[in-house]
Design goal:
zinc ion binding; eight-stranded mixed β-sheet; 22% strand; alpha+beta; 40% helix; binds (3S)-3-amino-4-(1H-indol-3-yl)butanoic acid; binds zinc ion; single chain; five-stranded mixed β-sheet; Aminopeptidase_N-like_N_sf; 876 residues
Length: 876
């Protein structure tokens, strides 16, 4: 298959303006299910006489044009997995009619569709997933995002098995039919591309509520989940209502239909999907309450519900012209969900968490074999571009625009964007133009962020000339060549900067020696910037505060200076960053076997840790984060090469043991002083206290003492977070409290998502690969369900280095085998698993060899486009 290029975009010659779909899910055999479509076409290019409709794995039964049987067509089988059968229609006989109707009838494969794309069975439910190219598995169509059409959908199915029949928009009609069947008709007045089409059929528990918009319209809200799970939907409903309110308050955006529905399904490749008026969710991102979900998962539910809801405007009302523009809707919507979480919970913690995704994962993507700009130029499998680069770096790019022009101008830009493009399919250039025009700020140079891949490195050098009372501050940026792009240019980097004096006070209103103000936002536009700052005392310079630009900062600092910043800086994000930098020095000193340096670095870290412990009660949520010694995955992310994952894991263990010995008694005193958390509520204070309890207990019980505290935590718990934390502590610190695990497994025997969390914990702590493989024996395990497979393999790869990178090669071999197995039925899942092997380039040779062997093995097999694109780019 040939890759597609961004430059190859051509507008449509015809548009399908109106789409009527009539689905018949057969009650007896389930299949062949059929769909009859009636598509109203409009000619856009005068003189155009033929067009090609996309199709895959379909069987054409009937074709009519303007009511007459039509022979002027060609069905073409294209290479690739699945039977691509593009349908070319020749309409030259139509005598130049610019509007005409095409009727098509075809079968569609529902029951045996394991791709989780198109229309498929998720357990007992029928559901759809059309982004990005799933609609072609349903019927022949212009399956591309720039064909906007008004959809009307009729669904007919067995009433007993499928009591709910749902699609986008508003319900129009429903009724009973012969032979136990029934039907429902839905109409969505907003023109949309095929990727936003949705259909769901099945039996569900439903939670209903209402939201009154700011202009006083009543919107019915319905959330559907598997029967028996209805009581676990209240949190998601509160998230939805808060999201709707927040989008009105912060972005002045109101919901536009009379009904908003969300459905949870058990088989899904991603988190969720923003289909107009009918979001479909992976149940793991929707279903959960205090007894079945950790605080972290509830927070994720909140975020994903918000994210999909926010797409209603940024994605649905204004969509992408082509898939190369994916970051137009995803980068912007991630930015919006991050802001929602920041405004709802805690801005610093949200920033720390989203920066961790960038630093620990996206930076590796940007320097590895699949490096691509946020708006890619060349794509083989579109599924492979739902990446951290497109989503999270895309959001950082939006955030930089926000930083450069300010909140007020940004909101003006959003207004202008909607005024210009509502109901249209547009490009990233259109978005940036709206921001530039609304703010009056020229963003021409800034736009390089859309086409240049790789992470800029910024070197900060400073020198104080006491005699002339000048601080020389030199900033320099460089982006190294990446796999996909050799030549790089300077980018526009907004760098928030703080100056501290030796007493730890922030110094404001600084001027350069020629009298110009030194802004707290330094914008580095060229390769270098040299500032001469007038000051009578030396200053500590901290830049990229709040991670104002997605760059890697290099700044030579002594351990003492890092400890000083960690203890004194009046910015919590930078405190966190300084602690990470100091932790990294601890690792480096240990890894280079330099006992003197290691002792010095660790000594300073222990001091900082003591200071942090002393302040923990001021802000438990934040300090629980600050009190965690940097984990091996975050350390690995800082390496460009020669990473020894086993050695990193050893240092992690050693430092945690040292912390227990040095501060276990202080942790115990603090634990005993903690305020009562009180009856469960989901808020940042309570979640913070629960997290702090875990962090302290981990220290306290590090040497196997005080295990009764862990037993008490479990026994007295009124929530899932405390229970799984107790289980975790028991296993991590070998406390021998087997009775906790027994109770846990009995209590949650039927809770599949809870048992996924248990599997993840087990996979993280497993001692060898057989222990990991044994997890597939649990009664809930299903080798075809992405949630079950990922619950084991992701933690193995990210958090269990001892097993993943065991030098006998069995860890990486297992991942490769699973990638190959899943590639036979779900290439999207397989390609995600191949990702777990793509860190090979930074490993020390003995580990790199093991991973490359597995990638070469995969390359020798028959693979889907999705997996092949990844494997080949790795071996190129
Ligand atoms: N826009 C949604 C993308 C998505 C998806 C893409 C490929 C294959 C399966 C998928 N499920 C959902 C998700 C989002 O960003 O909101
Ligand atoms: Zn999205």
């Amino acid at each position: 298959n040939k890759p597609m290029l961004r430059a190859d975009y051509r507008p449509l010659d015809f548009q399908i303006v109106d789409t009527y779909l009539d689905f018949n899910f057969d009650s007896k055999a389930e299949f062949p299910s059929t769909v009859r479509s009636k598509l109203t076409f409009k000619r856009l290019t005068p003189g155009a006489t033929s067009f090609v409709l996309d199709g895959q794995d379909l069987q054409l039964l009937k074709l009519r044009v303007n009511g007459l049987a039509w022979d002027d067509y060609k069905l073409e089988n294209l290479p690739g997995e699945g039977k691509f059968q593009n349908l070319t229609l020749d309409i030259s006989k139509l005598d130049d009619q610019d509007n005409f109707v095409v009727e098509i009838e075809n079968t569609l494969e529902v029951e045996n569709n394991k791709l989780l794309s198109g229309i498929y069975k998720a357990g007992e439910h029928i559901c759809s997933q059309c982004e990005s190219k799933g609609f072609r598995l349903i019927t022949y169509y212009f399956d591309r995002p720039d064909n906007l059409s008004v959809f009307t959908v009729k669904i007919t199915a067995d009433k007993a098995k499928y009591p709910y029949l749902l699609s986008n928009g508003n319900p129009v009609e429903s009724g009973d039919l012969a032979e136990g069947k029934h039907f429902a008709v839905w109409h969505d007045p907003f023109p949309k591309p095929s990727y936003l089409f949705a259909l769901v059929a099945g039996e569900f528990d439903v939670l209903e509520d209402q939201f009154v918009t700011k202009s006083g319209r009543k919107v019915d809200l319905k959330i559907f989940a598997e029967v028996g799970k209805g009581h676990q939907l209240h949190f998601a409903m509160s998230s939805l209502k808060r999201s709707m309110k927040w989008d009105e308050d912060r972005f002045d955006l109101e919901y536009d239909l009379d009904l908003f529905m969300i459905v949870a399904v058990s088989f899904f490749n991603m988190g969720a999907m923003e289909n107009k008026g009918l979001n479909i969710f992976n149940e793991s991102a929707l279903v959960g309450d205090k007894d079945t979900a950790t605080d972290a998962r509830l927070k994720r539910i909140d975020k994903v519900v918000g994210h999909e809801y926010f797409h209603n405007w940024t994605g649905d009302r204004v969509t992408c012209r082509d898939w190369f523009q994916l970051t137009l809707k995803e980068g912007l919507t991630v930015f919006r969900d991050q802001e929602f979480t920041s405004d709802t919970f805690d801005r610093t913690i949200e920033r720390i968490e989203s920066v961790a995704i960038m630093q620990n994962h996206q930076f590796d993507e940007d320097r590895g074999p699949t490096s691509h700009p946020i708006r890619p130029e060349k794509v083989l499998s579109q599924d492979n571009f739902y990446t951290l680069t497109v989503y999270d770096k895309g959001s950082e790019v939006i955030r930089m625009i926000h930083t450069l022009i300010g909140e007020q101008n940004f909101q003006k830009g959003m207004k202008l964007y909607f005024e210009r493009h509502d109901g249209k399919a547009v490009t990233c250039d259109d978005f940036v133009a709206a921001m530039a025009d609304a703010s009056g700020v020229n963003l021409d140079r800034f736009k390089l962020w859309y086409s240049q891949s790789g992470t800029p490195h910024v070197t900060v050098k400073q020198h104080f000339d006491a005699e002339h009372q000048v601080l020389f501050l030199d900033l320099e940026q460089v982006t190294y060549p990446t796999h996909n792009q050799k030549e790089k240019h300077p980018l526009v980097l907004p760098l928030k900067t703080i100056f501290l004096d030796r007493e730890g006070n922030q110094v404001l209103d600084l001027k350069t020696v020629d009298g110009k103000p030194v802004e707290s936002l330094i914008v580095l536009e060229e390769a270098k910037l040299n500032l001469q700052i007038a000051t009578d005392k030396p200053l500590v310079v901290v830049t990229n505060v709040d991670f104002s630009a997605p760059v890697i900062v290099h700044q030579d600092r002594s351990f003492e200076e890092l400890a000083f910043v960690a203890q004194h800086i009046p910015n919590e994000y930078s405190r966190y960053q300084a602690i990470q930098d100091l932790n990294f020095e601890v690792y480096k000193a240990h890894l280079t076997n330099n006992p003197v340096l290691a002792g010095q670095a660790l000594g300073l870290y222990l001091n900082v840790f003591e200071t942090l412990l002393g302040k923990a009660l001021d802000n438990p949520a934040l300090y629980a984060t600050l009190l965690r010694f940097t984990t091996p995955d975050a350390v690995a992310a800082r390496f460009e090469k020669d990473l020894d994952p086993l050695a990193v894991a050893k240092v992690y263990k050693h430092v945690n043991e040292t912390l227990t010995r040095a501060h276990g008694h202080r942790a115990l005193a603090l634990y005993q002083d903690l305020p009562e958390v009180g009856a469960f509520e989901f808020n940042v204070q309570q979640a913070g206290l629960r997290d702090l309890k875990y962090v302290l207990l981990r220290l306290i019980t590090g040497e196997g003492e005080h295990k009764e505290l862990v037993r008490d935590l479990y026994t007295n718990a009124d929530n899932f977070t405390d229970r799984i934390n107790a289980l975790n502590l028991n296993l991590t610190n070998n406390l021998g409290l087997a009775e906790l695990e027994k109770e846990f497994l009995e209590r949650y025997h039927h809770e599949v998502l809870v048992l996924d969390a248990y599997q993840s914990l087990r996979a993280t702590l497993a001692k060898d690969i057989n222990e990991v493989k044994d997890l597939t024996k649990l009664h809930t395990y299903d080798a075809h369900n992405p949630n079950r497979v990922r619950a084991i393999l992701n933690p193995l790869a990210f958090y269990n280095y001892n097993v993943m990178y065991n030098l006998d090669g069995t860890g990486v071999q297992y991942i490769a085998q699973e990638a190959l197995r899943t590639d036979k039925f779900n290439p999207q899942l397989s390609s995600n698993l191949v990702n777990l092997l793509l860190k090979f380039f930074k490993l020390a040779p003995q580990y790199q060899k093991l991973v490359l062997e597995q990638l070469e093995f995969l390359a020798s097999q028959t693979l889907s486009n999705n997996a092949r694109e990844k494997v080949e780019s790795a071996l190129e």
